[in-house]
């Protein structure tokens, strides 16, 4: 949620509840007006299986999966999530589904438990994009 709010408002808010939101946002990219719809799902709700998760996957055109560089568990669930997304989306089409892995909290390097190299290697092995960012900065 912090990363989504930072993208939408350019502000950082550190504490969020455990709620799911859909945001709409206009942005001009290369002279073209783009309308984003962002379905922000907290990690606790991402863990659920079944129709809710499938509904989210079918709704989306692309995916940004965010983990904390300070939380190994948030990183470790990514391969299964990505495999689930690819199976659901690419099974219907020959097109590659755009997926980006984002390591957040780069500013907390002293608490890091997941290296940048691990993130890059995971993204490479799963054919995804990769970035490390700090929503706070």
Automatic annotation (TrEMBL):
A GO molecular-function descriptor: G protein activity
Matching Gene3D superfamilies: P-loop containing nucleotide triphosphate hydrolases (3.40.50.300)
Pfam families recorded: Ras
Enzyme Commission identifier(s): 3.6.5.2
Residues annotated as signal peptide: none
Keyword tags: GTP-binding, Hydrolase, Nucleotide-binding
Swiss-Prot/TrEMBL catalytic activity: GTP + H2O = GDP + phosphate + H(+)
SUPFAM superfamilies: P-loop containing nucleoside triphosphate hydrolases (SSF52540)
UniProt similarity note: Belongs to the small GTPase superfamily. Ras family.
Record-linked PANTHER family: RAS-LIKE FAMILY MEMBER 11
Protein's UniProt name: small monomeric GTPase
